[in-house]
């Protein structure tokens, strides 16, 4: 019996001891948790509190901001100045091009006016050229008929009247600017003479027109009909023979 009581008492003591140990652990756990909560609360409070800067720190920040602002402003001024110079250069180039175009247009207009004026003067000056050109061939044929020899006195008197009319027509043409091209006995000039025939006669001058087959005419300063001629042309070789 005594042994059983002792055993029972020992078990009771062990239970109490274990119970006390568990309560101590709980108290410690609660204390740690409270400490953790307090530490977290303090950290959160620190984070929520605004940072405190000294006056020197603020002055330094303001100075840096002013320097940065001044630097940015300087860059903007330089960029703006460069853009303005580029714009002025483009405007100057455009102005120069417009002036050149204007001068060119004015020059073209003046040249056009001069050309039109020149053509107008030429049209007035040579207004009768086509009519005169058409008249020359029948007038030349009439002159050739009137120069034919004729022994009939009645016909000669009749032709004399036509010669007078032919002379009057030629005088009118000459007054208007028509002139016969000199060809007979003249040095051959391809500008005024066309050679239809050619002979080689040493007794006559070399390269000279010896006959006029058809008369040539000038109208003022223009050739309206070259003279058709026979030309004498010969040359000597080294032995003095004609070639």
From TrEMBL:
Residues 8-46, 52-85 have a biased composition (Basic and acidic residues). It is found in: Cytoplasm. GO terms for molecular function: adenyl-nucleotide exchange factor activity; protein homodimerization activity; protein-folding chaperone binding; unfolded protein binding. The keyword Lipoprotein does not apply. Keywords: Chaperone, Cytoplasm, Stress response. The keyword Cytoplasm applies. InterPro entries: GrpE, GrpE_CC, GrpE_head. Residues 1-85 are annotated as: Disordered. GO terms for biological process: protein folding. GO terms for cellular component: cytoplasm. It comes from the Bacteria. It holds the Pfam family GrpE. Participates actively in the response to hyperosmotic and heat shock by preventing the aggregation of stress-denatured proteins, in association with DnaK and GrpE. It is the nucleotide exchange factor for DnaK and may function as a thermosensor. Unfolded proteins bind initially to DnaJ; upon interaction with the DnaJ-bound protein, DnaK hydrolyzes its bound ATP, resulting in the formation of a stable complex. GrpE releases ADP from DnaK; ATP binding to DnaK triggers the release of the substrate protein, thus completing the reaction cycle. Homodimer. HAMAP family: GrpE. Belongs to the GrpE family. This is Protein GrpE. It comes from Candidatus Phytoplasma pruni. The lineage of its organism: Bacteria, Bacillati, Mycoplasmatota, Mollicutes, Acholeplasmatales. The gene is grpE.
